[in-house]
Amino acid sequence: MATSHATPQPQNYELMFVGLVCFLNQDNGASKARLALLPDGTNPGLNVQKHFPYIVVNPGAVVQKSGWDTNDANLTALMNHGAFRLPKCTLQISGTENGANLDPMQHDLHVPKLIAADPTVKIDPNTPNAIAKLRISSGKLEALRRPNSNVTDTDVAVISRLTVSHTGDIVVTATPTEGGQQRTLRLKAGTPIALANVAFPSTNGTAPHFPIYGRITKSGTIANNPQKIPANTLPQAAGTQTIFQLGIQINDGTAACGNQGCCRP
User: What is the pTM of this model?
Assistant: First the structure.
């Protein structure tokens, strides 16, 4: 008797964007796309906490990894807990760029805008000083408030959630833009993922984090006047993802350290 094999069905997974991430509008007519840019906060200037980029997942969901070898015991310990620090790179993540069916409507309405902070802001997508970038053109993109926020808060950090339909294992590929070995993670189907740009481990500094967004602008600067987002305009993100279980300093709790949106270049 012949054995029948069921055809694998698409399965949704969530990709969370946490910390300093800007979504640059790259719409082209009916085709919707966003370029997620993580401004380089690894050398942010005097009295500003350093920010580092990570892919964060449940370590038990990692099927295979390559290119992450390091002699740094601290980075090895982080990886054992599911936090993989990224080099300066371009990212590809399965299912995020499968076509032209991105739905960013809710996100566009509620994410704070860099041009609201500084009307002179311009970004060249070809030459931003981004520590990592990811183009997305598939899935549903939504703006949420951080898990430990209160509905009465008048200014909350925005976390973006991309819900993606994908069949089979999820592959994350980081291609360094300044040389070095390509890095990959193969994850179990349906694994929640976070792409984070956060002050972790924390370093000395009490100056505002928002000016780090200036790194991706043509001028290299931005006015420190972030748009405030009230909590009651946003649904609350669940705190179940691995990134929220590691004691990572996500942000200072306000929109200044959350995700931002921006205009066309």
Answer: 0.94
